DNA sequence: AAAGCGGGGTA
DNA sequence: TACCCAGCTTT
């Protein structure tokens, strides 16, 4: 249980601080639940500056949830291109369809129903409930974990079930019931501007006089995370199979990175041994008797993802004519239409480098 | 409970 | 390089 007098102190200092600062954002003070939801999905694990242009683009192309629901999935993926965590785009589209049909285009003013939408978890449900409907649900995001663990000196790992539960309970107790939206906005602004991950501004912190971590010299040790990142290396060889102005691409459908984005035919190897590709099964699957004539190899390109390091080369190959077999998910497109498809950053970089003069 | 999922900013 | 960001879903 959080001490009542501490809760009062915390709220008051936080709200007073927030009243003094400015942090303009396109969705701040927004009342349309659709736009609030849209901004929250975009901002999941994404810094505000990075998400801002995407919010504007989605708002422009899909002014209403119905417009988004009616859009083709590939179009939504294309607009999301470059933002990462593409399941967000897929869930965004799916949720738009649900709201459009089941809820007649209106987001439910109910925390539990919000939580049931695909892509809406505890944080996002609380954000929509408070910002759109003034309901008393405290947001718990990375900022909140950091602030509460420091001020209260809690070393329970935040990336465990017990940690999530404990911090959620405390956050809910601290919430200002009078104006949940203002409070939620304030605590996230505070985490983003004042109680930042490294070198926080403790000298001018309104909570410094009661901050346990500051008193005990634990600022750099909190919050505690238990799991450490494991990173794996992957080696991709992409084949740009061309004849005239036609090129083969395919949609990624497996449960893997970049699902529902497009790429070129791919051979993945377990190591840097990039030879032997001419004998790959890929050519047989495409109904090609031989690998074709290699015109150029570009790369290696590297991309660092959170959990994977990708090393990729791009081999440009001239075919005499179209492949006789195109497996499911493969398609032939005109070179000038490539820009209509959503590609991972890695491939987008390659395409830009070559400014579409593939040969 | 643990793993998987992007891309970019910062120290 | 390592960590973090207005986290969620699947296994």
Structural overview:
The protein has 359 residues and is α+β, with helices and mostly antiparallel strands. The protein has two domains: 4-221, Hypothetical protein, domain 2 (Endonuclease III, domain 1); 232-353, Nucleoside Triphosphate Pyrophosphohydrolase (Alpha-Beta Complex), CATH 3.90.79. Helices cover 40% and strands 14% of the residues. It contains 14 helices and seven strands. It has helices spanning 4-20, 33-43, 48-61, 65-70, 73-80, 87-101, 111-115, 122-133, 142-151, 161-174, 180-193, 212-216, 281-285, 345-353; strands at 232-243, 246-251, 262-263, 266-269, 293-304, 308-318, 330-334. Strands 1, 2, 3, 4, 5, 6 and 7 form a seven-stranded mixed sheet that branches. Strand 1 (232-243) and strand 2 form a beta hairpin. Helix 2 crosses helix 3 and helix 9 packs across helix 11. It is elongated, with a radius of gyration of 25 Å. It starts with a helix and ends in a 6-residue tail after the last helix. The model has no long low-confidence stretch (mean pLDDT 94). It binds a DNA duplex (11 and 11 nucleotides) through helix 2, helix 3, helix 6, helix 8 and helix 9.
- Please state the average pLDDT score: 94
Strand content: 5-15%
CATH topology of the largest domain: Endonuclease III, domain 1
Distance between the termini: 67 Å
Tag the structure with descriptive keywords:
Adenine DNA glycosylase; 14 helices; 359 residues; 2 domains; 7 strands; glycosidase; DNA damage; DNA-binding; MIG/MutY; Nucleoside Triphosphate Pyrophosphohydrolase; Endonuclease III, domain 1; 7-stranded mixed beta sheet
